[in-house]
Automatic annotation (TrEMBL):
Domain of life: Eukaryota
Any one GO MF annotation of this record: symporter activity
The name this protein goes by in its record: Solute carrier family 15 member 1
Entry's transmembrane regions: 43-61, 73-92, 112-132, 153-173
Family matches, as Pfam families: PTR2
Family label: Belongs to the major facilitator superfamily. Proton-dependent oligopeptide transporter (POT/PTR) (TC 2.A.17) family.
GO terms classed as biological process: oligopeptide transport
SUPFAM superfamilies: MFS general substrate transporter
GO cellular component: membrane
Amino acid sequence: YPLSIFFIVINEFCERFSYYGMRAVLVLYFKYFLQWDDNLSTAIYHTFVALCYLTPILGALIADSWLGKFKTIVYLSIVYTIGQAIISVSSINDLTDHNHDGSPDNIKLHIALSMIGLILIALGTGGIKPCVSAFGGDQFEDDQEKQRTRFFSIFYLSINAGSLLSTIITPILRG
């Protein structure tokens, strides 16, 4: 196996763990930190998820007509990481709690940071989605059909393992 395959599989496990872990508590964040009602929380959540499934089209266009798979993965992974960092910072209560009463004084800043973070996450996670599996398959020579087939099995196992574990572990850690 090419050495790069192990990095691809591990990176995809971590990316899915991060994405689904954040999604597992996102509506709770909307409701209890941003103080949104059920309808707004649900609408924003589903808009975010829809955007995550729409942006692979953009990622494929960028990869096929401009940057190539590798650079698209690298650049959009950076965008994704910045988005996760921004949404994490937006959840820091003390960021705007100047009077130390336990609630943020400028909720609009938290909302703005949250939306920017979610947009960047959607661009990143969706943008790399069409590229990673194809890039992984490109790592094999023509005579490595058996290894390539096994790679895709391991690759999809890692994606689903990351998703499953994060949806179990993240709510436990939250508690």
